Structure formats: structure tokens, C-alpha cells
Amino acid sequence: MSADKGAGATTSSKEKLVWILIYSLCSSTMLVINKLAVSTNGLPTVVSGAQLAVSALVVVVMEFFGASVLGPFERRRIVPFVLYTTMFAAGLFSNMKALMLTNVGAVISARCCLPLIVCLIEWAFMNRAFPNGRSIMSLMGVVAAASVYIMNDTGVSIDGSAGMFWLLVWWLLLAVQMTYGKHLTENISMTQWERVFYTNALAIPPTIV
Q1: SS3 state of residue 209
Q2: Neighbours of 101 (CB within 10 A)
Q3: In the chain, which end has fewer C-beta atoms inside a 10 angstrom radius, N or C?
Q4: Which distant-in-sequence residues (6+ apart) come within 8 Å of 189 by Cβ?
């Protein structure tokens, strides 16, 4: 029995590692593609809107062809997502503006510092344990490693105070969005496809605005 539990725990850890690696690959690839896109057309909202529309449409097409990925549309599930998707849309826009006014190195350095503030927000508002010494050392190690990479490869380029402003706005929005998104995930029962649909579809109106 204990051996089965150990095997299950190992499988779970492997699955988590796989999804972390896939997320990292997608996130880093999209960062570079978004930089190329906004540098080419100079229209961050158009790039963001296209991503939102296509992501939501994929789920609709899957439902249309019988995949049954969407449950009933209920107010108790939709309303909490309105605030989240508004932050999501604002975060996308500020990220595109930051990419226009800075380089990828600046965005990477800001992203690597994100876990530090997320830990503080979770501790202050979500009753999470404060990071212990070992965790803090690990987080600082990530920041230090990213700093070494940036200094020796891409460098950090920020176009004046506007670049710094949008980088900071994106960084703060992403921190709040991540913690609130975790709260929604833990308290609202949804499939992963439903979260994809609600997040992207409900973010389209504020993006248009």
C-alpha cells in the first residue's frame, strides 16, 4: 500500500515537472514572438486581441465538434472571472507595451523577481506560510542566475521612464493576477478548458476598450 502511494507521489511529481517545462517553453517562445509582433506592427492591443480570440475560439470549436469541454454558463462561475479577466487583459496590454519600450532581457529580469512578491502576497492575503530560509535562498538563486545570464548575454534596455512604468505595471498586475487566479482555481470547480475559455473570452471586451 505504501509502495503504491510512493509510486503515485512520484508520478505526480513527474507530471508537475513535465507541465512546468511545457509552460516554460510556451511562455519563453511567446515572449520572443510577441516582441517580434509588436516591433513589426506597433499595435499591442491587436496582437493581444488576436491571441484572446483564437484561444477562446479553439474551445468553442472543440465543443461544437462534440468534445463536451464546456459546462453550463452559471453566474456564480462567471462573475468572479470578470475581475480576473480584466486584470488579465490589462496585463497583456502592459506586457506588450513593455516589450515595445524595453527588450526581452528587461522582461526576463522582471519576471524572475516575480516569485518574491507573489510569496509576500500569498502570505499576507491567502494565509500561506511565510517562505523559510531555504525557500528564500532558492528564490534569490533564481534571481541571481537570471542576472548573470542577462549581464552576459542580452543586457537590459529600457526606453526612458515610459518603459520603466509599463514594466512595473505589468509586473504588479501579473503578481496580483497569479495569486487571484490561484484563489479562483481552488474555490471554483471548473475544467481546464473552461478556465481557458472564460479567461480569454471575457478578456476580449476590456481589451477592445
Answers
A1: coil
A2: 20
A3: N
A4: none
Chain-centroid distance, C-alpha 1: 38
Cβ neighbours around 159 below 10 Å, total: 14
Question: Which residue, 44, 43, 23, 28, is CA-closest to 92?
Answer: 44
Task: State which H helix or E strand residue 139 sits in.
Answer: helix 133-152
CB 183 within 8 Å of CB 130: no
Strands in the chain per DSSP E: none
**Phi/psi class of residue 191: alpha, beta or left (left: φ > 0; alpha: ψ in -120 to 50)?**
beta
What is the spatial distance between Cα 61 and Cα 78, in angstroms, rounded to a whole number?
A: 20
What confidence tens digit (pLDDT) does each residue in 31-74 have? 888 888 888 888 888 888 888 899 999 999 999 998 888 888 88
pTM score of the predicted model: 0.61
CA distance linking residue 143 with residue 66, whole number of Å: 45
